[in-house]
Amino acid sequence: MITLKSAREIEMMDESGELLADVHRHLRTFIKPGISSWDIEVFVKDFIEKNGGIAAQIGYEGYKYATCCSINDEICHGFPRKKPLKSGDLIKVDMCIDLKGAMSDSCWSYVVGESTPELDHLMEVTKKALYIGIEQAQVGNRIGDIGHAIQTYVEGENLSVVRDFVGHGIGPTIHESPSVPHYGEAGKGLRLKEGMVITIEPMVNTGTWRMKMDPNGWTAYTQDGGLSCQFEHTLAITKDGPKILTSQGEELTY
After folding, report:
1. Are 127 and 231 in contact (CB under 8 A)?
2. 24: annotated binding-site residue?
3. What chemistry does it catalyse, as a reaction equation (predicted)?
4. Is 232 annotated as a binding residue?
5. Is 201 annotated as a binding residue?
6. pLDDT band at 254 (very low <50, low <70, confident <90, very high)
7. 77 is in an annotated binding site
8. 145 assigned to a ligand binding site
9. pLDDT value, residue 252
10. Chain centroid offset of residue 6 CA
11. Using CA atoms, how far apart are residues 145 and 141, in angstroms rounded to an integer?
12. 214 annotated binding-site participant
């Protein structure tokens, strides 16, 4: 079932999203060579709780952590661990926050230490793909318009879009209808309505889009060992256009 949110509910989700965005702003300087993704997990959980929120991923379908920390060829749902990060690693930090009953969800990618031209290109394309998708999140457009715009751009940059994991509706629970693929046909799929709140979260790979699962039942890897990047925002569909609820301010440059 798709739930349409009231203006008050969207305002509350915006407050939740601002807290989540603030976590990511702090991670920009926190993440560096030598720390571990477990250090990130501890930092994020403490930050959320000190600011009155709940790390909503803990306990969701049996998941144990406040964050998903996926490194290099891990597409998503990587477990935090104590192995130190090294310069040149690409880490995706995904989290959900419940603030006074209002949900928000955002993943951001970070290069640890020194980058490379390959990483720079992957990061730039993935982030731009997110905003290209958001531009299509207009009242009256269809779900397929979002995916088609993202897929066309990404494949034009000789990268691939993951098919197995998609965006989704959110609030009052973490994952709700509708599903929001990052590939597809323009003009197809559910029509977007005012009051919908969804995530758009393209996962972009340097090689094949196909994935393989870890025996842990959660973590997905690229099938060919290529790098994978992800950026995600929670946004509301409004009559004035998409309203990004997890904005860090960076979209002003796109």
Report:
1. yes
2. no
3. Release of N-terminal amino acids, preferentially methionine, from peptides and arylamides
4. yes
5. yes
6. very low
7. yes
8. no
9. 53
10. 23
11. 7
12. no
The residue type of 19 is L
pLDDT digits (tens, 9 = 90+) for 184-232: 999 999 999 999 999 999 999 999 999 999 999 999 999 999 999 999 9
**Packing angle of the helix pair 143-156, 117-135 (nearest 10 deg):** 160
User: What distance in Å separates the CA atoms of residue 152 and residue 195, rounded to the nearest whole number?
Assistant: 27
Return d(Cα 117, Cα 227) in angstroms, integer: 13
Per-residue model confidence as pLDDT tens digits over 23-38: 999 999 999 999 999 9
Question: Which residue do the tokens 């349409």 mark?
Answer: 4
